[in-house]
Amino acid sequence: MPPTSARRAAVEARQRVSAILLTRPARMPRASGGAAAAASTTAAAAAAVPAPVPVHVPAPASLSQPDLTATCSVCLQELNVKRVTTLRPCRHHFHESCVATWLETREYRREQTCPLCRAYVQKLVDDSGRTTMPGFPYGATGQPTYLRLGDANLMQLHELLRDTESRLARCVELLRDESKGDEYKLDLQAEKTQMEARRDTLQRLQSQQRQSRAALSPVPQVARTRSAPEPAAGEVRTTAMQLELMERRRLEALQAHHQHLFLQVMQQRAQSEAMLQQLLEMQLFQQRQQQQAHQQQQLLLQQHEAARAAAVNRIVFDLDDSFDMDDSFDTDEDDVEDTVPRRSARIAAR
């Protein structure tokens, strides 16, 4: 039998028992003579006076015991029919099964309020003084709301995952740019090799020029009177100096450009490594959060199953008790005379 059907059967059984107890008049012990007449007169007068209609009065904060003559605001029956529980902090009294059904049919925990004053219910106190927490809010579907949300709870994680993927794509582009920097480095090295070859050629030409000058030094003064070689030598020297200066400036510019590109590549690499480290830490943090959420969900489900099992056991016990009481009413009339007052006192004590 499902828990809802069992609870409904228990409530109906208790209603039948309470109706039988309230409708059957209690028999007084037999008396003789005037005592019997006085007893019959008293019983007739009591039957003639109509019973007052019980009205629920909210219990003040100073009272710790419920008024059993009042009624439950949920099922509109007297409090002495079922077990009574007290809501804290408002201290209103209801039947334990009625207020449990009322709280469990809420959709969210913040909606678990008192049926009378709408105060937020923090805990429940039964007639024996034991304190319990309100049950899980199932709503109309009979399942906790957080189990029906599905992927809606993971929306933030999905957005964070998309952001992480975009950052990873950016890192891949940076790595591709780093490979382009290697290509620039190869071009610079090839250009440097060409400049070094030109420098070697220039040095060889300068050495040949010095050798030619040394070979022409012992020439007589007549040969020096010529004006053609001197301007040619001066032009060669000036051209060589200009070429050397240009090559030096070009080499310096290439070296500066190479250093600048190398620094840019190193900075991009450091940034990409830092970004990858942050992304890895974020992924680890997400995994830990998901594991913690899964563990909390498993713990809540276990607590919920334990609470439902305890509720089912309590309902079965109440059913057994009610069925025993029904069986006791089928006995002979003398046994009923002795059993009804005792069971009425037991129910009132509950």
UniProtKB/TrEMBL annotation:
InterPro entries: Znf_RING, Znf_RING/FYVE/PHD. Residues 327-338 have a biased composition (Acidic residues). Keywords: Metal-binding, Zinc, Zinc-finger. The keyword Secreted does not apply. Residues 72-118 form the RING-type domain. It holds the Pfam family zf-RING_2. Residues 203-217 have a biased composition (Low complexity). This is RING-type domain-containing protein.
